[in-house]
Amino acid sequence: DIQLTQSPASLSASPDEIVTITCQASQDIGSSLLWYQQKPGKSPQLLIYSATILADGVPSRFSGSRSGTQYSLKISRLQVEDIGTYYCLQVSSSPYTFGAGTKLELK
Amino acid sequence: QVQLKESGPGLVQPSQTLSLTCTVSGFSLTSYNVHWVRQPPGKGLEWMGRMRYNGDTSYNSALKSRLSISRDTSKNQVFLKMNSLQTDDTGTYYCTRAITTSHYFDYWGQGVMVTVSS
Predict the structure, then answer these.
(1) Using only C-alpha atoms, what is the Rg of chain B?
(2) Min CA distance, B109 vs chain A (Å)?
(3) What is the pLDDT of residue A70?
(4) Which of B26, B38, B105 minimizes the C-alpha distance to B69?
């Protein structure tokens, strides 16, 4: 099975800061990487698909990038409403796998 | 509009079988894949398995021996059955729709909380 190593596990940042979360895949998954945001008590919301494509309705301060088997989610200017837990998910091959999550809090 | 809704028992006894239903509307099960994802309290997301648009299924390796996913297209329902439940199967269970080409999960149900306890 493909493993996704997500880091950091938690992150504290101030409004307007730049935030970066990374996912390292255990093997080549191409661009088959998704990013989700989850708020407490809610279902996950899609942010990025195909590693770099912004989902409909997602603010442009979110962006995704890829370098080999390392994937990153960047929030260019953190807003209060961005607080939550972020997950990467590989959909290259079954069984699909999630990263362990990054809990983003306000400093 | 697209909707998915999970239903099932909130409480299951250890060693028993969990049966959940995902009822969908606004799209056809023969055009989209439906996945099941679960989340233990306070923990991360775990992919469980999927029902493809053509009826094929695939499962999480760790759950494969206990898990079965099926569907009834006439009722717009996808079913999850998992046997030999233990306390660490407690959590919120979600069904989610996936685009067959890009494979991203675009719509999610609200989730159903399942507690495994005697």
Answers:
(1) 13
(2) 7
(3) 98
(4) B38
